[in-house]
Amino acid sequence: MGPLLFFEAAHTNEDKKIVCRITGTGEEFHAQAQNEHGTSILPVWGPEYHGGSNWERPGTEWGTGFNFPEPGCWTITITRGKTMGEIALDVLDP
User: Fold this and answer.
1) C-alpha–C-alpha distance, residues 94 and 81, integer Å
2) Where are the domains of the chain?
3) pLDDT > 70: what percent of the chain?
C-alpha cells in the first residue's frame, strides 16, 4: 500500500476526507475503520477514484469519507485485491 493523506485533525461526528494511494490491480478498492472496542464503520462516501492527481506516489489514488461516531483510536484498513494496508488514527472530540 502507498501513503495516506489527511487534510486536518479527525473529530467525532464530522465527515473526514482521507485520500490514499494503493498498489494492486483489477480488484475493487475497499475501506473500513474499527476502534479499539471492536466497533466497525464503512465510509459514508466513496471510494472515489482520483484520476489526474498531482500527488506523485506509487499506486492509484482513491478518496473516502469517514464519520467517526466516538473518540479514540481507529484503525483504517484499505484493501485492493491481495494488497492491504492499515493506519491508526486518533479521533478527537470537537
Assistant:
1) 35
2) 13-91
3) 90
Contact of 32 with 46, CB cutoff 8 Å: no
pLDDT tens-digit series, residues 69-91: 999 999 999 888 888 888 889 99
pTM over 0.70: yes
Q: Which of 78, 68, 75 is nearest to 21 (CA)?
A: 78
Q: What is the DSSP string of the chain?
A: ---EEE-S--BTTSEEEEEEEE--SSS-EEEEEEETTS-EE--SEEEEEETT-----SSEEEEEEEE-SS-EEEEEEEEETTEEEEEEEEEB--
CA distance 13 to 93: 9
In CATH, which superfamily holds the domain spanning 13-91? Immunoglobulins (2.60.40.10)
